Amino acid sequence: MTMWTSLDPADLTVAPGARTSARLRVRNTGDTVEEYRLSLVGKPSGWSRVEPDVLRLYPGSEGTAEISFAPPRSSDVEAGPVAYGIRVDPRENSAARDVVEGRLTVTPFTEVRAELLPPSLLGRFRGRARIAVDNLGNTPLTASLVARDEANRLTFDVRPNAVQIAPGRAAFGELEVRPQAVRWTGGEESHRFTVAVRRAGDDTSLDLDATFDQRPVFGNWLVVAGGLLMTAVIAFVVLWFNFSPKIVSAAKEIRASGAPRPVPQGSGEALPDAPPPPSDTGAPPPGEDAPGGPPPASDGGPPPVGGDDGTGDNSGGGGPTDPGQGGAAPTGSGPETAAPTGAGPDPGDGGNEQQPPPPPPAPQKTGPDWGTGYKADIVVEFAQERLASLNNACTLKPGWTRGVIDGPTRTSLICYQDAVVKDGRENGKNSAAIFDTDTRGMLGRATLTSMWAQGITPDSVKPGTTGWQTTKLMAGYWWAINRGFDDGDMARVRTDAQYGIDNFRTDRQKTSTYSTEVAAHIKQYQSAVGLPATGTVDWPTLRKMVGGSVKK
Fold this sequence. Notes:
Blueprint: E1 3-8, E2 11-14, E3 20-28, E4 34-42, E5 48-51, E6 54-57, E7 62-69, E8 80-90, E9 98-106, E10 112-117, E11 120-123, E12 127-135, E13 141-148, E14 154-159, E15 162-165, E16 170-179, E17 189-199, E18 205-214, H1 220-243, H2 250-257, H3 378-388, H4 407-427, H5 434-437, H6 445-453, E19 466-467, H7 468-481, H8 487-506, E20 512-513, H9 516-528, H10 539-546
Parallel strand pairs: 2-9, 11-18
Antiparallel strand pairs: 1-3, 3-7, 4-6, 4-8, 5-7, 8-9, 10-12, 12-16, 13-15, 13-17, 14-16, 17-18, 19-20
């Protein structure tokens, strides 16, 4: 053993967002000059450092290094004790390396953010909204959801009425609002109400103010239209009874006028007698033709076939070569007289061939990532709006289908991805990392991070500022840092996508403040992509985001 080490103190406590330090003493107990390299191991290594990290000591001398810990105020830093170690590697005598162990306790903190989506409800009989609750602290959270209105004119149904949220996650509740009295006519009536989000063990609550605009069942235009329709019906009825035409039977008019009646068809008042039956000798009755002609047709049917005049000649309306006129078909054995086989429909089923049932349609896929044939999604619709606003060779032209990767959208998406990578590799304007995680022509995390980061500058996202650029920054961060998405994550990114669509279509911008929480998230992103974790957005950070650098 050529060294002696000591850590003072070995057990520390620190609050997220604060700083603390310990001191490491190293003594060279050997007989040669030695250089000791110091490094941190364990969970705190991401937000801790050793100064200096190299001690050069003469035999018998002693050196000191300071180990500082600065955990960010973020849900990524879990509360509780965390073990760490300081590895001491002698350069000359590597076999004598040592690890000095210590323990750091991170104190818990709570931070809750809630939002009602949408904050303004509209309906005649009910209104529906979602309550989003984010746990920004580093301990699990249980919160109750209660809705109330001071005028007591609304009825609320909250499902569930309590949610449990892990650190860094979000939970959602469904809210249904009903008015206690139905409004049949008149104008809209606005009801104000409040949704209280209360953390377990805390008497204070986070109140979300909202409104429910109750529409009448029959609007003013409907009342006016109904009145006009009723007036028209009454006017029609009055006109019908006052000016209805009088219909008189023609038979009554004839009898009343004494006009002659029409004579029945025929030459007399009575039908002639029936002809006498045929004589026994077979001679025709007087006035009849000789036998041998075609007999009369039966009721509604064709004449009988094969009337025989005693000469053997078929005269039943069609010869043997004319089956279309009622004669029998030829019965020869030649190929031109044989019945066709094989190709016709089966006479047993009436000529209707049974078709096999079509195969069931394949289920549509969902993202992320999104590609051709995937189910429509509002995240894809945001990307289409982003591509349609480029104003360059990659601009998405009109004619695309909302929410799906159709042909025009895929062409524009590939052009955008290739342009970002080319600009990064040839001009050094970004990290050109889109294809490190995304497939060409697929809308994935890296491409969405790049789209959200477009147009952001360091001056527009400084600490303490409030604006649309901070909202874009956090939307891009959410895609860059999350490798797996649960229902809560997808609800959040779809809410961000709606904010982006509103900005492109109506210039309505959702603003956010660059708080300490945002700074902690930026530190996390910078660490994930290999940048100094400063928490301040600079050009290297934005070049990474525009280039599609994400946590792998």
